[in-house]
Write a structure and sequence with these properties.
mainly alpha
Length: 120
Amino acid sequence: PVAIFAGKLSPAEALTKFLKENHQLSFSKISEIIGRDEKGLWANYKRANRKMPWTFDINDSITVPVSIFKSEKSILESLVSHLKDFKQMPNKKIAQLLNKNPSNVWTIYNRAKKKDKNEN
């Protein structure tokens, strides 16, 4: 759910905490799914637990497939790119969902597009 990224946690912390607690996945399984280092995921989870000791309580929220996070882009870049390219959302709507400024969303999206061009 996109709502997990709107809080005080970093995108990596939010994703790790959500997958670990709400889906009971191991760090090795999370690492396999999103293609990130297992030790980094462990550190993200520990930081997230200090900042937010309770579990996510997500009701209805826009969802994205976890597979979008397995790329060279950052977690936030992957998320914004997916919302913009596949969900056809304007920057203003993405900014509201993520609790960010629309100009920041524009910057994140353009950085992700540059990375996409460099991969090809």
